[in-house]
Amino acid sequence: MGIEDVDRGRWYTARMQRQTAQRHAILDTIRQAAGPLSIPQIHARASQDAPGLGLATVYRTVKLLLATEHIVAVDFPGEEPHYEPIGRGHHHHFRCLSCDHWFELDRCLGCLVAIPDGTTLPDGFVVEAHHLTLYGRCPRCAAEPNPTASPA
Amino acid sequence: MGIEDVDRGRWYTARMQRQTAQRHAILDTIRQAAGPLSIPQIHARASQDAPGLGLATVYRTVKLLLATEHIVAVDFPGEEPHYEPIGRGHHHHFRCLSCDHWFELDRCLGCLVAIPDGTTLPDGFVVEAHHLTLYGRCPRCAAEPNPTASPA
DNA sequence: AGAGATGTGATAATGAATTATCGATATCGG
DNA sequence: CCGATATCGATAATTCATTATCACATCTCT
Does the keyword section mention Repressor (chains A, B) (predicted)? Predict the structure, then answer.
Protein backbone atom coordinates (compact mmCIF):
# COMPACT_ATOMS: atom_id res chain seq x y z
CA MET A 1 0.00 0.00 0.00
CA GLY A 2 3.07 2.26 -0.15
CA ILE A 3 5.16 3.73 -2.88
CA GLU A 4 5.50 0.51 -4.81
CA ASP A 5 1.74 0.33 -5.00
CA VAL A 6 1.52 3.53 -6.97
CA ASP A 7 1.57 3.46 -10.75
CA ARG A 8 4.42 5.83 -11.53
CA GLY A 9 2.93 6.68 -14.89
CA ARG A 10 -0.15 8.03 -13.19
CA TRP A 11 1.49 9.43 -10.13
CA TYR A 12 3.97 11.48 -12.09
CA THR A 13 2.31 14.26 -14.02
CA ALA A 14 3.23 17.79 -14.90
CA ARG A 15 1.99 18.93 -11.52
CA MET A 16 2.82 15.87 -9.47
CA GLN A 17 6.39 14.75 -9.84
CA ARG A 18 7.65 13.91 -6.40
CA GLN A 19 6.77 11.31 -3.84
CA THR A 20 6.52 12.77 -0.39
CA ALA A 21 5.59 11.53 3.05
CA GLN A 22 2.53 13.80 3.02
CA ARG A 23 1.16 12.46 -0.23
CA HIS A 24 1.63 8.86 0.80
CA ALA A 25 0.02 9.50 4.16
CA ILE A 26 -3.00 11.05 2.48
CA LEU A 27 -3.46 8.32 -0.13
CA ASP A 28 -2.94 5.55 2.40
CA THR A 29 -5.44 7.17 4.75
CA ILE A 30 -8.11 7.19 2.06
CA ARG A 31 -7.34 3.63 1.03
CA GLN A 32 -7.44 2.23 4.52
CA ALA A 33 -10.68 3.90 5.58
CA ALA A 34 -13.90 1.92 5.98
CA GLY A 35 -15.74 4.54 3.92
CA PRO A 36 -15.45 7.90 2.23
CA LEU A 37 -13.63 10.60 4.21
CA SER A 38 -14.05 14.36 4.27
CA ILE A 39 -11.14 16.80 4.01
CA PRO A 40 -11.04 17.40 7.79
CA GLN A 41 -11.13 13.66 8.41
CA ILE A 42 -8.30 13.03 5.99
CA HIS A 43 -6.34 15.83 7.61
CA ALA A 44 -6.85 14.45 11.11
CA ARG A 45 -5.93 10.86 10.23
CA ALA A 46 -3.06 11.54 7.85
CA SER A 47 -1.51 13.91 10.38
CA GLN A 48 -0.65 10.88 12.48
CA ASP A 49 1.63 9.60 9.74
CA ALA A 50 2.77 13.04 8.62
CA PRO A 51 3.08 15.27 11.71
CA GLY A 52 2.40 18.93 11.07
CA LEU A 53 0.48 18.19 7.89
CA GLY A 54 -1.11 21.38 6.61
CA LEU A 55 -4.72 21.65 5.59
CA ALA A 56 -3.72 23.29 2.32
CA THR A 57 -1.62 20.26 1.48
CA VAL A 58 -4.62 18.02 1.99
CA TYR A 59 -6.69 20.11 -0.40
CA ARG A 60 -3.85 20.22 -2.94
CA THR A 61 -3.11 16.51 -2.77
CA VAL A 62 -6.74 15.46 -2.91
CA LYS A 63 -7.16 17.53 -6.04
CA LEU A 64 -4.12 15.88 -7.59
CA LEU A 65 -5.25 12.40 -6.58
CA LEU A 66 -8.58 13.15 -8.25
CA ALA A 67 -6.85 14.34 -11.43
CA THR A 68 -4.59 11.27 -11.51
CA GLU A 69 -7.60 9.02 -10.92
CA HIS A 70 -6.44 7.51 -7.66
CA ILE A 71 -9.57 8.61 -5.80
CA VAL A 72 -13.10 9.79 -6.58
CA ALA A 73 -15.37 12.30 -4.90
CA VAL A 74 -18.59 11.18 -3.24
CA ASP A 75 -21.27 13.69 -2.35
CA PHE A 76 -23.78 13.19 0.42
CA PRO A 77 -26.85 15.31 1.14
CA GLY A 78 -26.01 18.48 2.99
CA GLU A 79 -22.36 17.61 3.52
CA GLU A 80 -18.96 18.53 2.24
CA PRO A 81 -17.55 16.22 -0.43
CA HIS A 82 -16.00 12.96 0.69
CA TYR A 83 -13.35 10.90 -1.07
CA GLU A 84 -12.78 7.19 -1.59
CA PRO A 85 -10.35 5.08 -3.65
CA ILE A 86 -11.21 4.66 -7.30
CA GLY A 87 -12.30 1.39 -8.87
CA ARG A 88 -14.53 -0.14 -6.24
CA GLY A 89 -17.45 -0.49 -8.61
CA HIS A 90 -21.11 0.21 -7.94
CA HIS A 91 -21.87 0.28 -4.27
CA HIS A 92 -23.88 2.20 -1.70
CA HIS A 93 -23.12 3.86 1.60
CA PHE A 94 -24.19 3.63 5.18
CA ARG A 95 -24.13 6.46 7.67
CA CYS A 96 -24.01 5.75 11.37
CA LEU A 97 -26.41 8.10 13.16
CA SER A 98 -24.44 7.59 16.35
CA CYS A 99 -20.82 8.26 15.38
CA ASP A 100 -21.63 10.19 12.17
CA HIS A 101 -19.20 8.26 10.03
CA TRP A 102 -19.72 6.88 6.55
CA PHE A 103 -19.17 3.26 5.57
CA GLU A 104 -18.93 1.58 2.23
CA LEU A 105 -21.28 -1.36 1.83
CA ASP A 106 -20.20 -4.49 -0.02
CA ARG A 107 -21.39 -4.83 -3.53
CA CYS A 108 -23.56 -7.76 -2.56
CA LEU A 109 -25.39 -5.60 -0.05
CA GLY A 110 -25.42 -2.58 -2.24
CA CYS A 111 -27.82 -3.21 -5.04
CA LEU A 112 -30.98 -3.31 -2.96
CA VAL A 113 -33.13 -1.38 -5.35
CA ALA A 114 -36.02 -3.35 -6.74
CA ILE A 115 -36.36 -1.28 -9.90
CA PRO A 116 -33.26 -1.74 -12.08
CA ASP A 117 -31.82 1.08 -14.13
CA GLY A 118 -33.46 1.38 -17.51
CA THR A 119 -36.94 0.77 -16.17
CA THR A 120 -39.73 3.15 -17.10
CA LEU A 121 -41.89 4.00 -14.14
CA PRO A 122 -45.69 4.15 -14.61
CA ASP A 123 -45.62 7.94 -14.68
CA GLY A 124 -43.19 7.96 -17.59
CA PHE A 125 -39.99 8.56 -15.67
CA VAL A 126 -37.08 6.64 -17.20
CA VAL A 127 -34.60 5.49 -14.58
CA GLU A 128 -30.98 5.61 -15.66
CA ALA A 129 -29.21 5.45 -12.31
CA HIS A 130 -29.86 5.49 -8.59
CA HIS A 131 -28.27 6.49 -5.32
CA LEU A 132 -29.18 4.63 -2.18
CA THR A 133 -28.05 5.67 1.25
CA LEU A 134 -28.82 3.73 4.40
CA TYR A 135 -28.90 5.31 7.83
CA GLY A 136 -28.67 3.54 11.14
CA ARG A 137 -26.02 2.20 13.48
CA CYS A 138 -22.68 0.72 12.61
CA PRO A 139 -21.67 -2.58 14.25
CA ARG A 140 -19.62 -0.85 16.93
CA CYS A 141 -22.26 1.70 17.90
CA ALA A 142 -25.06 -0.87 17.70
CA ALA A 143 -23.24 -2.93 20.32
CA GLU A 144 -22.20 -0.20 22.72
CA PRO A 145 -24.80 1.55 24.86
CA ASN A 146 -22.65 4.66 25.09
CA PRO A 147 -20.99 4.88 21.70
CA THR A 148 -17.81 6.78 21.12
CA ALA A 149 -17.09 8.94 18.10
CA SER A 150 -14.01 7.03 16.92
CA PRO A 151 -14.93 4.34 14.45
CA ALA A 152 -12.68 2.40 12.10
CA MET B 1 -54.37 27.28 -1.61
CA GLY B 2 -54.60 30.93 -0.55
CA ILE B 3 -54.92 32.74 2.74
CA GLU B 4 -57.86 30.72 3.97
CA ASP B 5 -55.74 27.60 3.60
CA VAL B 6 -53.31 28.76 6.24
CA ASP B 7 -53.75 27.79 9.86
CA ARG B 8 -53.71 31.18 11.54
CA GLY B 9 -52.44 29.67 14.76
CA ARG B 10 -49.35 28.46 13.00
CA TRP B 11 -48.97 31.33 10.59
CA TYR B 12 -49.09 33.92 13.31
CA THR B 13 -46.05 33.78 15.55
CA ALA B 14 -43.94 36.35 17.29
CA ARG B 15 -41.91 36.84 14.14
CA MET B 16 -44.65 36.23 11.61
CA GLN B 17 -47.71 38.30 12.20
CA ARG B 18 -48.83 39.64 8.87
CA GLN B 19 -50.04 38.07 5.69
CA THR B 20 -48.37 39.54 2.66
CA ALA B 21 -48.45 38.91 -1.06
CA GLN B 22 -44.80 37.85 -0.94
CA ARG B 23 -45.34 35.20 1.72
CA HIS B 24 -48.34 33.74 -0.02
CA ALA B 25 -46.54 33.70 -3.34
CA ILE B 26 -43.63 31.82 -1.79
CA LEU B 27 -45.75 29.25 0.05
CA ASP B 28 -48.00 28.69 -2.95
CA THR B 29 -44.98 28.26 -5.19
CA ILE B 30 -43.59 25.53 -2.98
CA ARG B 31 -46.96 23.83 -2.67
CA GLN B 32 -47.67 23.82 -6.39
CA ALA B 33 -44.27 22.53 -7.48
CA ALA B 34 -43.83 18.99 -8.79
CA GLY B 35 -40.85 18.53 -6.48
CA PRO B 36 -38.55 20.26 -4.02
CA LEU B 37 -37.34 23.73 -5.05
CA SER B 38 -34.12 25.58 -4.32
CA ILE B 39 -34.01 29.17 -3.13
CA PRO B 40 -33.23 30.55 -6.61
CA GLN B 41 -36.05 28.48 -8.07
CA ILE B 42 -38.52 29.72 -5.47
CA HIS B 43 -37.36 33.26 -6.12
CA ALA B 44 -37.80 32.94 -9.88
CA ARG B 45 -41.24 31.38 -9.70
CA ALA B 46 -42.71 33.41 -6.85
CA SER B 47 -41.57 36.61 -8.54
CA GLN B 48 -44.26 36.05 -11.13
CA ASP B 49 -46.93 36.41 -8.46
CA ALA B 50 -45.03 39.01 -6.45
CA PRO B 51 -43.16 41.27 -8.88
CA GLY B 52 -39.92 42.70 -7.55
CA LEU B 53 -39.64 40.01 -4.91
CA GLY B 54 -36.30 40.31 -3.16
CA LEU B 55 -33.96 37.38 -2.63
CA ALA B 56 -33.59 38.27 1.05
CA THR B 57 -37.34 37.97 1.45
CA VAL B 58 -37.21 34.45 0.04
CA TYR B 59 -34.52 33.46 2.53
CA ARG B 60 -36.42 35.09 5.40
CA THR B 61 -39.76 33.58 4.49
CA VAL B 62 -38.39 30.11 3.88
CA LYS B 63 -36.81 30.18 7.31
CA LEU B 64 -40.11 31.22 8.86
CA LEU B 65 -42.06 28.59 6.96
CA LEU B 66 -39.61 26.02 8.27
CA ALA B 67 -40.01 27.25 11.84
CA THR B 68 -43.82 27.23 11.56
CA GLU B 69 -43.72 23.75 10.03
CA HIS B 70 -45.29 24.59 6.73
CA ILE B 71 -42.35 23.27 4.73
CA VAL B 72 -39.36 20.99 5.23
CA ALA B 73 -35.84 21.07 3.86
CA VAL B 74 -34.60 18.34 1.55
CA ASP B 75 -30.91 17.93 0.90
CA PHE B 76 -29.47 16.35 -2.22
CA PRO B 77 -25.85 15.35 -2.81
CA GLY B 78 -23.71 18.28 -3.81
CA GLU B 79 -26.59 20.75 -4.03
CA GLU B 80 -28.06 23.64 -2.13
CA PRO B 81 -30.98 22.75 0.14
CA HIS B 82 -34.39 22.35 -1.47
CA TYR B 83 -37.79 22.80 0.14
CA GLU B 84 -41.11 21.00 -0.13
CA PRO B 85 -44.45 21.17 1.72
CA ILE B 86 -44.65 19.34 5.01
CA GLY B 87 -46.75 16.26 5.59
CA ARG B 88 -46.36 14.33 2.38
CA GLY B 89 -45.11 11.24 4.16
CA HIS B 90 -42.30 8.93 3.18
CA HIS B 91 -41.35 9.29 -0.45
CA HIS B 92 -38.34 9.45 -2.74
CA HIS B 93 -37.13 11.82 -5.40
CA PHE B 94 -36.28 11.74 -9.05
CA ARG B 95 -33.85 14.03 -10.79
CA CYS B 96 -34.10 14.61 -14.51
CA LEU B 97 -30.61 14.53 -16.00
CA SER B 98 -31.87 16.56 -18.94
CA CYS B 99 -33.70 19.51 -17.37
CA ASP B 100 -32.03 19.23 -13.95
CA HIS B 101 -35.24 19.48 -11.99
CA TRP B 102 -36.35 17.42 -9.03
CA PHE B 103 -39.63 15.52 -8.84
CA GLU B 104 -41.42 13.92 -5.98
CA LEU B 105 -42.35 10.30 -6.62
CA ASP B 106 -45.68 8.93 -5.49
CA ARG B 107 -45.66 6.97 -2.31
CA CYS B 108 -46.53 3.82 -4.20
CA LEU B 109 -43.42 4.23 -6.32
CA GLY B 110 -41.28 5.38 -3.50
CA CYS B 111 -40.60 2.44 -1.30
CA LEU B 112 -38.47 0.48 -3.72
CA VAL B 113 -35.92 -0.67 -1.22
CA ALA B 114 -35.83 -4.40 -0.72
CA ILE B 115 -34.41 -4.19 2.80
CA PRO B 116 -36.93 -2.55 5.14
CA ASP B 117 -35.89 -0.26 7.94
CA GLY B 118 -35.07 -2.16 11.12
CA THR B 119 -33.21 -4.91 9.29
CA THR B 120 -29.78 -5.94 10.49
CA LEU B 121 -27.41 -6.41 7.60
CA PRO B 122 -25.02 -9.41 7.69
CA ASP B 123 -22.12 -7.16 8.69
CA GLY B 124 -23.98 -5.95 11.75
CA PHE B 125 -25.22 -2.64 10.40
CA VAL B 126 -28.71 -1.85 11.71
CA VAL B 127 -30.79 0.04 9.17
CA GLU B 128 -33.07 2.69 10.65
CA ALA B 129 -33.85 4.73 7.56
CA HIS B 130 -32.96 5.11 3.93
CA HIS B 131 -32.77 7.70 1.21
CA LEU B 132 -33.28 6.65 -2.37
CA THR B 133 -32.76 8.97 -5.30
CA LEU B 134 -33.46 8.00 -8.88
CA TYR B 135 -31.79 9.70 -11.82
CA GLY B 136 -32.97 9.66 -15.40
CA ARG B 137 -35.41 11.52 -17.63
CA CYS B 138 -38.71 13.04 -16.69
CA PRO B 139 -41.74 12.31 -18.92
CA ARG B 140 -41.39 15.56 -20.79
CA CYS B 141 -37.66 15.24 -21.49
CA ALA B 142 -37.98 11.52 -22.28
CA ALA B 143 -40.43 12.38 -25.04
CA GLU B 144 -38.68 15.39 -26.56
CA PRO B 145 -35.50 14.93 -28.59
CA ASN B 146 -34.42 18.48 -27.77
CA PRO B 147 -35.65 19.07 -24.25
CA THR B 148 -36.15 22.52 -22.82
CA ALA B 149 -35.20 23.55 -19.33
CA SER B 150 -38.69 24.56 -18.22
CA PRO B 151 -40.50 21.63 -16.63
CA ALA B 152 -43.63 21.68 -14.52
C1' DA C 1 27.05 16.05 -1.93
C1' DG C 2 25.04 20.09 -4.44
C1' DA C 3 22.05 22.68 -7.48
C1' DG C 4 17.65 23.72 -8.69
C1' DA C 5 13.04 22.83 -9.23
C1' DT C 6 9.07 20.97 -6.66
C1' DG C 7 6.39 20.58 -2.40
C1' DT C 8 5.00 22.23 2.14
C1' DG C 9 2.92 25.07 5.88
C1' DA C 10 0.99 29.35 7.50
C1' DT C 11 -1.97 32.56 6.27
C1' DA C 12 -4.20 35.90 3.28
C1' DA C 13 -7.46 36.05 -0.40
C1' DT C 14 -11.29 34.43 -2.86
C1' DG C 15 -16.04 32.99 -3.90
C1' DA C 16 -20.61 31.68 -2.98
C1' DA C 17 -24.40 31.17 0.01
C1' DT C 18 -26.70 33.16 3.73
C1' DT C 19 -27.73 36.81 7.11
C1' DA C 20 -27.99 41.56 9.02
C1' DT C 21 -28.89 46.44 8.29
C1' DC C 22 -31.80 50.26 7.27
C1' DG C 23 -34.80 53.47 5.02
C1' DA C 24 -39.17 52.90 2.68
C1' DT C 25 -43.60 50.48 2.25
C1' DA C 26 -47.67 47.90 3.34
C1' DT C 27 -50.58 45.57 6.74
C1' DC C 28 -54.21 45.44 10.09
C1' DG C 29 -56.52 46.54 14.46
C1' DG C 30 -59.01 50.32 15.99
C1' DC D 1 -59.19 55.72 7.04
C1' DC D 2 -54.97 56.19 10.44
C1' DG D 3 -51.18 55.14 12.82
C1' DA D 4 -48.00 51.88 14.85
C1' DT D 5 -45.03 48.67 13.34
C1' DA D 6 -44.13 44.35 10.87
C1' DT D 7 -42.23 43.49 6.56
C1' DC D 8 -39.95 44.59 2.21
C1' DG D 9 -36.01 45.44 -1.18
C1' DA D 10 -31.32 46.72 -1.88
C1' DT D 11 -27.09 45.95 -0.39
C1' DA D 12 -23.42 45.48 2.99
C1' DA D 13 -21.65 42.14 6.12
C1' DT D 14 -20.76 37.60 7.53
C1' DT D 15 -19.61 32.83 7.35
C1' DC D 16 -17.30 28.93 5.75
C1' DA D 17 -15.04 26.06 2.40
C1' DT D 18 -11.60 26.34 -0.87
C1' DT D 19 -7.64 28.50 -3.33
C1' DA D 20 -3.57 31.52 -3.99
C1' DT D 21 0.67 33.40 -2.16
C1' DC D 22 5.28 33.13 -0.58
C1' DA D 23 9.23 32.02 2.20
C1' DC D 24 11.31 27.88 3.54
C1' DA D 25 12.07 22.86 3.35
C1' DT D 26 12.61 18.67 0.66
C1' DC D 27 13.19 15.70 -3.17
C1' DT D 28 15.57 14.14 -7.42
C1' DC D 29 19.14 14.04 -10.71
C1' DT D 30 23.89 14.45 -11.57
Answer: yes
CB-nearest to A135 from B76, B81, B129 is B129
- When the pLDDT of each residue in chain A is averaged and rounded to a whole number, the result is 84
CB contact under 8 A, A128 and B136: yes
Please classify residue B139 by burial: count the beta carbons closer than 10 Å to its beta carbon, then call 0-12 exposed, 13-18 middle and 19+ buried: middle
Query: What residue type is assigned to position B137 of the chain?
Result: R
pLDDT (0 to 100) of residue B143: 86
- CATH class for the domain made up of B3-85: mainly alpha
For chain B, the domains span 3-85, 93-143
Helices (H), A15-125: 21-32, 39-49, 55-67, 107-110
Using a CB-CB cut-off of 8 Å, the residues of chain A touching B109 are 121-123
SS3 state of residue A77: strand
Element (H, E) at B42: helix B39-49
